[in-house]
Amino acid sequence: MAVHKAGRKTARVAAAVAAAALIGVAASACGPDEDKGSGKVAEKPAPPADSGALAGVPASVKGGVITVGDPKAKHTVKLYEDPRCPICKKFEETGAQALVKPVADGKVKLEYTIASFLDKNLGGSGSVNAAGALRASVDAGKFPQYHAEVFAAQPEEENDDAFTPAYLLKVADKVKGLRGAAFDKAVNKGTYKKWVDEAMKAFTDDGMQGTPTVVIDGEKSSGNALYDQEAFAKELKAAGIS
What is the dihedral of CA 219, 225, 231, 235, to 10 degrees? Predict the structure, then answer.
């Protein structure tokens, strides 16, 4: 499966490109145009249209994991992502869309573990900033929508440290009802830094070595279908999810 390895920068880039090439997926980021650190958010590309379908779905936090969906759902899909990972963005735009209806229908709950190892690999603090902002969006009841906007707002170049607090607040402007005193303070002050560390520990403790990693009812996806919505839907159906 295409992954981002938590190793040295040159080795990570080479491994990601090679792994992606095996399944015909470009590993380079394809986010919106924006000036690094400027706070300017490009209008395109927008998140997939289906992202709004999860607006009414509950989200909660336990330990370093954010859960979206009915806690009593029969199926569990675990998602391991880093906000700066362009291959995660590719998954969110394609395969992940096959999860929207099952989650909205209460059949599946999603457990997100938001990693931040790319800051260490590439320099900067964009992953940590974005992970903390995503945690803050749970308190505001807007995690699914903001999660979609954050990945849509990835910079063109993966090594651009674009996820500054100012930029993340501009991204939040795209989610109605998200901005407010509590959310803005959490983003600007890094309120959830300890939680971000806890989430990274959860990522490591689960034995994860790269992103995106998807685990369906305890079975790790082979990755061959992650970047095609129809193909991933078939993989989910084989696991009893439709």
Answer: -10
d(CA 102, CA 216): 13
Contacts made by residues 229-234, CB under 8 angstroms, sequence distance 24+: 229/94, 229/95, 229/97, 229/98, 230/98, 231/95, 232/94, 232/95, 232/96, 232/98, 233/98
pLDDT of 31: 25
Q: Are 156 and 30 in contact (CB under 8 A)?
A: yes
The structure's pTM equals 0.83
Per-residue pLDDT tens digits for 27-52 = 333 222 233 334 455 444 566 656 67
Alpha-carbon distance 64 to 4, whole Å?
A: 20
The pair of structure tokens assigned to 36 is 């690094």
Residue pair 15/3 in contact by the 8 Å Cβ criterion: yes
Residues 6 or more apart in contact with residue 209 via CB below 8 angstroms:
3, 5, 6
Cα dihedral sign, 242-105-83-63: negative
Structural contact between residues 139 and 183, judged by C-beta atoms closer than 8 angstroms: yes
DSSP 48: P
What span, in angstroms and rounded, lies between the C-alpha atoms of 218 and 220? Answer: 7
Count Cβ atoms within 10 A of the Cβ of residue 230 and give its class: 0-12 exposed, 13-18 middle, 19 or more buried.
exposed
